[in-house]
Fold this sequence. Notes:
- Helices cover 39% and strands 21% of the residues of chain A.
- Chain A is built from 6 helices and 7 strands.
- In chain A, strands 1-4-3-2-6-7 form a 6-stranded mixed beta sheet, sandwiched between helices.
- Helix content of chain B is 28%, strand content 18%.
- Chain B contains 6 helices and 9 strands.
- In chain B, a hairpin with a 4-residue loop joins strand 7 (145-150) and strand 8 (155-159).
- The longest helix of chain B is centred in the middle third of the chain and has 19 residues, at 71-89.
- Classes of the chains: A alpha/beta, B alpha+beta.
Amino acid sequence: MVRPSGRARVGLALLALLALPGALGGPPRHPAPLTLVPVTARDVLSLARRPGAAATLVNVWASWCVPCRQELPELLRLARDYRGRGLRLALVSADFDSAAARACLVGLGVNGANFLKAEDDMPFIATLEPRWSGGLPATFVYDRAGRLVSFWEGRSDYARFEQAVRQAMDRGSGPKTREKT
Amino acid sequence: MSLRIARTPPLAAGLLLAATLSAPPARALDLGAPLPARTVAMRNVDGRPVTIAATRGAKGTLVLFTCNHCPWVRAWEERFVRIGNEARTRGIGMIAINSNDPSAYPEDAFDAMQERAKSHGYRFPYAEDATSEVARAFGATHTPEAYLFDAGGRLVYHGTVDDDARHPDQVRQHFLADAVAAVAQGRAVPVAETKALGCGIVLRPAAQE
Lengths: 181, 209
């Protein structure tokens, strides 16, 4: 099988996002079928830099990861609550088996475009965040310019997600900053 | 010397959640760091106490944080078992450690560890880190995660097994096997730090919590 280049994958991912609005946990105006778009870390960063969102929260998860599954409903609730304020939520599954990721998302009522890691682990980790050990779940919050504002590993809750998103929205036009972990 | 093996009673879900959410971010050992938590007594799958110190080899020591439930562990298991079994014949001690809270992952309970070690041919200790104290001392965050120390007990390799968990026949870089070979021969490790995705370790609550 010929795998698409990184640039092609960016196009595919963004095209999928544009073609399938209302995804990622928010109540869609026009419900779209769930799709899993293969992405590299560069694709994810391109998405975070794409205009149109006040903040982007990227969560890397896997269907068999208990802490990941525990926090997904919190993320989806946040996405609904902040839909009108410009939050873009990108769920990136690290599952070996896309069917497992799909089943998990369907069970949570997720539709539209979501993502599946399609890159070797080391470049994926190094490109997204060198401080990331590789543990799951991992959360990355970017401001409107695609600058990383917060990053952490491990399970979190609504309050911490919301705090990070608000911080990113507040700092959207300020200098580049990073949360110390 | 008598060893007391720490055990944690079953945890209420609320306590586990609180501990998970309040846990500070781990910081892994830096290269060159001394072997930590050497004398912490854990329970080996043979039912006896074991410490990292007791597993040290004359040429080095390999400590692998692992578990039963994790798909990445399963993908790499045949390879790291082979590496660990062979390392012991080359003067490098090997110990596998499960620091997960089994209330989060029942598959990681002690009896399942015993079965796993037996069915997969572990010829090295597979120990239950019943307080997660050892994982905290290493700053270990996920499984599988390897730490290799030289004869002097200094960290010379930290990271993953190789560069392709899913496709053993497509591995290009045998990071851990190469590091073990180098330490066994007294050479510098070719690639000292690597990373891979893995299953986050769900630590038991710390003693003071």
